[in-house]
Structures are given as structure tokens and as C-alpha cells.
Please model this.
Amino acid sequence: MSATVDDRPEVHAALAATRGQAGLAAALRWETRKLRAQLRSRALLLGALLAPIAVVVVVSAQSRPPKDTLFGRFATENGFAMALLVLGFASQWLLPLVTAVVAGDIFASEDQHGTWKTVLTRSVSRSRLFWAKVLVALGFGLVALVVLAAATIATSALVVGRQPLTGLSGQVVEPHSALLLVAAAWATMVPPLVAFTCVALLFSVWSRNAAVGIAGPVVLGMVMQLVGGLGGIEAVRPLLLTTPFEAWHGLLASPRFTGPLLEGCTTSLVWSVVSLATAFLVLRHRDITGG
Amino acid sequence: MSAGAAAVEVVGVTKTYAGLVAVDDVSMRVAPGEVYGILGPNGAGKTTLLRMLFGLIRPDSGEIRVFDRTWADDDVRTLDGVAGFIESPKFYPYLTGRQNLEGLRLLDGTGLPDRVEEVLDIVDLTGREDHKVGGYSYGMRQRLGVAASLLRSPRLLVLDEPANGLDPGGIRDMRALVKRLAAGGLTVLLSSHHMDEVEEICDNVTIMRRGSVAFHGTIADLRTMAPDPGHLLRTGDDAKAVVVGRLRHPDIVVEPSPDGGLVATGSERGLAAYVADLVHAEIPLLAFTPTRTPLEALFFMLTDAEADPPSRPVVAGACR
Ligand SMILES: Nc1ncnc2c1ncn2[C@@H]1O[C@H](COP(=O)(O)OP(=O)(O)OP(=O)(O)O)[C@@H](O)[C@H]1O
Ligand SMILES: [Mg+2]
Model:
């Protein structure tokens, strides 16, 4: 520690001029940089790109198609059916997991590394940091979904083909419309994915533990799926966060119905708002004693 | 900031953790430009007080003003011109030293990229700045913590036991750096449990024990209050040495030490005369070493965990 501190007047003037709060954009840039530097997030995106390719290639090579699954019967001979088969599978547990890996860790890792005190003693407020993390986690979840969807649809079309699709009511959908419908079906994953991200964020803030932050939403999703599979729970079903993952079925029926889609949006919105509001309050009021 | 405002003004601050009073009605004032020490044994409440200053935890009652700003009114702007670290500084292990600093600069809202190189140079981390922090030694992380603080070009530097865990060379460098920064006009608030550190660096000191203030004042005041130094004495005939002390030197106290030998306590002049008499009485003198410095002795007196805390702090000099 040899040199002296810079006390040139111009340095002080420049610092005084810039002294103040870091904006949301600065916090966002910081969070994005950290995410990009993490091996895990890059590996996850690479997985989202490569896994569907492997799945499509393997399933299409089967002599007997997976008949018990939605669109499984046509999956080996129709690329659109294949993309919908993968969608049904991904929505069961893969999407909550993919988004939770980042969202469940993003707050808890500050506890794990003891870095809350490092960032909160700069010029960024807890609220800004909170929203920056929320946006980065949501952004990552959406990017992962887009990569997964694009890789699935493209590989299915290339490997299996772009034949006319037989819809859920037995109607025949021409390839051009089928492509739009398949893309729309993948897009309906956005609301529940956002909601699962917010739930993971809440787990992350509340538990201060990355393992709980990641596993929590996945386990919650599985429990909801089990509950959703039970009979006689019609009143509860719309409240479950896994129900919106099935709302795309209506798009593939004839005539189309969008009721479940709208209901799913509402459910996802409620889960998102409640989770985020709770997470915000917990973070805002907690004492940072660790690190 | 109004004219004459304190750099830090702590008024009646209390913080309780699940029934345990970590900081108990503490008040103190740090004037701009001074080097202020908060001294206390483990668990005295130093870190808790500094965490409250940084807004990491909220006091149950009382107020902390930093350059006339408070968390209640100004939120994070309370930290304008303030930098430092609490306990050992922590960074993102998967980022390099430079990436950590670049990121923190973003969170400062300041736009002087050159400053990163400059502070790396100040703390002698040049050459290691592009290595991941996960591979840094404890001392390197401590220095990166100082660099991260200087990055903000602070007016007030708050350091929580900055020399903790450093080797003697690191401690020397850290103290030299703090003194140099203070000489440049920076206000420094530093916590420590080493009297010698505070004595060497600070102008004013608050001594804490069990959450309360046990002493406020200048180092000079502290020195005048310090008890006479005690010396460990090893002689060829301890019994005779005690008798010599009792008969001929009533101004000093000579008693057996629990660790063997004798402890003689008294003024330097009295001790010198006593030692001369021992030699004169042909009692072999094998060792004569100070037990602890006078200020250390005072520190132990003020913060002794066994004794009840003083109902009111000892206040000396210009401080409240
Ligand atoms: N998060 C916490 N939960 C419960 N008690 C706490 C917490 N943090 C601190 N304490 C208690 O508050 C008291 C003051 O602790 P603090 O860390 O402020 O002391 P300190 O003076 O910094 O000690 P040290 O020299 O060991 O760093 C201690 O009794 C400690 O056990
Ligand atoms: Mg401490």
C-alpha cells in the first residue's frame, strides 16, 4: 500500500458531480454481468439449446411412438406434434427448474457469499437492487424459454418434417397455421413461467439459501401437479400454478377456446404479484447481519 | 450539510437481538477530519453500531446522522461520501478483483474508470487484479476491501477492525495507509480491540463494553487516566524481594504473579528505585518486563467482563 490517494481537485470535482444514487440501469448492468460470468447460467442456456435437439432425435428414432402422451401418437411422423410433445414434457417440471436455477439463487447467493454488505454500502438502494435482480431473473427465464422453444420447433421441423398437423379435435391444420399454433402454444408458457420465477425469487429472499431457492419452486410445482391430478378439486384447480401450463390445449382444439388461457394469466399474475410483494417487503425490512 | 455538522452523530442508539442488547443507548460524535476509534472487547457492539451507520440494520431507537443525513430521510444518500467495510470485506469469488471493483463502481453511480487502476495501485494489488477473487488470500481480500472503499473517494472512511487477520507486515501497512489518508484530511472511524492500534492512529476514542459506552475522550485524556505500569519481575529470591518492597518502597505494590514471579506496580521512578535496591540487597534480578502498557491496563479496567458496567460512561476531554 504505497502510493498516495488521488487528491487532484478535478478528481474530487468529478466525483462530487457524479456522487449520488446508482440508477436501475446501473444495477441491471451489474446483475447481468454477474449472471454472464457464472458458468451455471451459460451451461443452462447451452442445455436449453442442445437438450431439445437430443430429445427430438432420440424420440424420432423410436420405432413405437409414445402413444399415451398428448401428441405422442403423431410425434414420430409430424414435426409439429413432436414440438408439442416436448412442450407438454417441458411444462411438467423442466420450465420451473430452468427458471429457478437462476431466480432461486440470485438473492440467496448474496447471503452465501456474504456480499449484501458489499453492495448495500455503495450508492444503490435495496429497492433498486431488488428490481434489478427481479428483471434479470425474469429476463433469463424468458431467454431460456425462447431458446428451448426455438431449438425444439426448429429441430422437430428439420428432423421429423412439416406435415399437416392433426389437432386435438381431429381437425387437420395446414403447416403454416400449425407453425403459428405451435409457437403460440410455447408462448402461453410465459405467464406461468414468470409466476414460477417470482415464486423462486421469494424462496431465494426468504430462505437466504440457494438450494432452497432452487428446489422450493420445483417441489411446489410437483405438489401442485399431484394435487391437480386428483379428482373432485375443481374449485382449487384454477388456483394452481401448474394449471396455466396446460392452457395451450385450447388452441389446438376446434373450435378454439381461450378461457383457460385468460384464467391462467390471472392465476399467474396473482402468484407473481403476491410473491414479489412479499419478497420485496422481506428484503426491505431484514437486518443484514451476515457476511 | 450545515456548517459545523459532525461527520457522524450518534444519538441514543439502541439495538436488541432477540432480547440481547447489542448496543445500549450509545451516543458519540465524530468531527470532520478526525480519526475516531471505537474500542471494545469481543461482543462489545462495535460491529453492530457500524452496521447501523451503513443502514444494514435498523436501530430500535435513537438516530445516526452522517454528514447531517439520516437513513429515515435520505435513504441510501446517507452514504454519499462514505465508504468502508464491516468485518472482513466480501467479494464475488467468480469475478476477478478488477471485475469486482468495476461492478462496485457501477453501483456507486460514478464515472471514473481510471480510478480502478489507481486504487489497485494504492493497495498494491496491481498484477493480481485479473485473477479471480476466489483465489485471493485473506490479506489480499482485505486490501481489495480498502481499494473498493477508496474507489468512492470518500470523505468518511469507516473500517471495522481493518487489521483483523493480517500478518504483522500487513498490519503495519494498513495502519500506515490509514494514517496517510487521515493526514490528507479524510475522516476515519475505525473499530478495533487493540489499544495500541487506536493509540497509534486515533485522536479520539469511545470505549465500549457490553453494548454501552465505558469511556469517551481523547487519547491524551486516556493516557492521564491510565494506571501505573505493572512489571513482571523474576528474582533469585522472591520472598526477600517482596520484603524489600514492603519495607522500603511503600509507593509501589509488589505481589506474587499467578504465572510465577512477581508483579511490581508503581510509577516509573518508584520502580527504578526499587530495582536499584534489589541489586543493592544482592537479590539476583533475572527478568524485568512490562506486563502490559498503561493504556492496555486501563482498557482492561474499563472493559473487564467480570465487573459490572459503569452506570455512566467516563467522559473526558472535548468529547461528550
Ligand atoms: N445477528 C445477530 N444475532 C444475535 N446476536 C447478535 C447478532 N449479531 C451480533 N449479536 C450479538 O450482539 C453483541 C455485539 O456483537 P458485535 O458483533 O456488534 O460485537 P463486536 O464488538 O463487533 O465484537 P467483535 O470484536 O468480536 O467483532 C454480541 O453479544 C453478539 O453476540
Ligand atoms: Mg466486530
Observations:
- Residues 168-183 of chain B form the longest helix (16 residues).
- The mean pLDDT of chain B is 89.
- DSSP finds eleven helices and 14 strands in chain B.
